[in-house]
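Our collaborator T.R. sent over the components below with a one-line note: 'Predict the complex.' Nothing else. No constraints on interfaces, no templates requested, no preferences about which chain binds where. So this is a plain run: every listed entity goes in together, and whatever single assembly comes back becomes the starting point for the next discussion.
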Amino acid sequence: MRAIKQAITVTLISLYTIPQRLSSAAVAIVGIMGVVVVFIAVLSIGEGFKAAMTNAGKTDRAIVMRSGADSEMSSGLSGASVDIIKQAPGIKHDGLVPVGSAEMFVVLNVNRRSTDTPANVPLRGVDTTALAVRYDAKVTQGRMFTFGTNEVVVGRQASGQFTGLNVGDTLKTGKASWNVVGMFETGGTVAETEIWCDVRVLQGVYQRGNSYQSVLVHLESPAAFDTFKDKLGADPRVDVQIKRESDYYAEQSTGVTNLIEGVGYVVAALMGIGAIFGAWLTMYSAVVTRTREIATLRALGFGSMPVLISVVGESLFLALVGGVIGATLAYVGFNGYQASTMNWQTFSQVAFGFAVTPKLLMTGLFYALAMGLLASLIPAIRAANLPISKALREL
Amino acid sequence: MKYLFLIGRNLLRRKTRTFLTFAAIMVTFLLFGILMMLRLAFAGGVELANVSRLMMTNKVSMIQPLLLSYNDRIKATPGVASSTYSSWFGGIYKDPKNGVFEFAVEPDSYLKMYPEFQLPPEQLKAWLADKQGAIAGEDLAKKFNWKIGDTIPIMGTFNRPRGGDNQTWQFHLVGIYTGDKKTDKTQFLLRHDYLTDNRRGTQEEGITGWYLITVTDPSRSADIAKALDREFENSDFETTTATEKAAMQSFANQVGNIGAIVTRITAVVLFIILLIAASQMGLAVRERTNEIGAMKAMGFTDGLILTLTMAESVVLAALAGFMGLALAWAFGTFAAPTGAFLPVFFFAPRDIAIGAALAVLLGIVAGAMPASAAMRLKITDALRKV
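Returned assembly:
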């Protein structure tokens, strides 16, 4: 009990004296703050990208592609296969019509607003059932395109990130020109980076005859997936692979997310080591300047443990201050920041917002405290073992 | 020179503190090196691209094809010296995560277009003799332990082979190309005519991915590129031709501005280390106040005191900085994480020079305030303290 009281007292003394050592304390705070900002900022890119991709995938939708294809981009399905796929059990029906959309997926060169250089913006040809299958999409501006015409609707993100994609614009690519008649939202997911048009019109423009790339179906329920997959997978008339849409997008996001996270962790770890040395330096000089004070306390009967705890406590306090400032800066500066990058599997752009999630903020703070703890250990042990007589004689 | 000993003794006075500062600066410059290598790896295609090569892609998008028949028309365009073509093959070696990038090419003209890909003449001969042959970059071959003579199974995603299971291609590895550290040695090159053979009778028979073109006079590149695009205007396959550098830049822009992100991180890192180093030098000068007073009383001039304090800071920062840069260089040379996404990963001499200059600059800036304080110190004040 007494030891605890002592520890609290000594820690308070060291905290009260921080203003006297402000410039030295600032080193520890700013160092840790910098690491936390960079750590959270880099990982928020990965989180944002992952969210845009995985939120797009629903468990009650399944995507059917040719077997061996690693994405819609490299898939191909004949019109005959599409008819067979749509008859498979497990698909939700609207009256007698199966709720499944046979689609084509191509990319167009559209200039990015920020750099004015071409980017691969995906153009998806969709079926008349498209909005029933993609029930998360809402046309929020203008109207849905009319099937059989060269009208298109653009995703909110595509419209924001790339030039000439506002409602009323005309998009010219090669010999085709597309009239933008509406804008849709899907809650910030990858679909919002796409442009949608009538798949039959797109087949004509790309001279694809009656061939498609994928079929997206709305299942009766998430559980109906197994029936759908087993029955269709065993059908010898088609050569397809069937994936739950949520799994499909999770797979698509791993490459980029892992790369960003890998870079983020390596950079944060190295910066962290640097910051630990910096904070260590701070605590070391704090102990040196307080040598006399600590020795006096020891001579008065304070134990070595409370002294040790006070040094660790001060370091943790500085780290916490640095961590909180860093996390706040990262949140204010980066949360929701809009960017777009390449999804390598489909070779097309994905627009997303940086996501500074609560989990990231907590991880950042935890990391800050860990740095503070590691930095204080050796100076704390040193302070606790200070030979009293020698320390009092010093200076 | 005679003061070097003094500087050394001063640095070693507080060993722990000097060690901590040294370690912090060293780690910072190791990180600087890694960040620069990352930047180069992402922007590398741009910085290492050849300005005299032109790249021609489909105007609608680079994933749309061009016709194989364009080759003769390109060659006949005035100002064109040579041309070759290449296609994205899009196959998977065992696992998509292996990230093996295959390109279908016309061996002879492609290797002439890329003289940086070095293939022994007898291996080229073997490749020309075997339609099913393929060559791999040194780094790729090492990664999967491939040897010449191996048969490499590649699963086609959109390109399907005739025969077999209609899905798995079998390539004979007839050569391994090498190149200097700036060269991407992770590619897998197969013969375009073999791909075309397998496409006979389909819509894809007469197509290829893009063209690479050299011009007789690089200063006229822009005009020739325009002339080429005009040649194919209003066809079903319109083209966009640009220098390889411009094409790579536009591609890098698609990935995102990695360079800007890396530069910002570097700035934050350097600012933090500056604070640490400056605070350490400030402490060193403060605790030596009366010693500096004594030195001045003995006749050390203000200028000399300034120089000595600055030198101490610069020596520490430079030694630690160079050490960090050396570690980064060693990492880039012996442990480079090259792969499909990072085809080149090395510490460019220019970046090493920038790092070295930054280390010295760090020492100067960190030492400036403490050194000028030491210079201005009055003997009477300094000796009165304590």
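Summary for T.R.: The mean pLDDT of chain B is 90.
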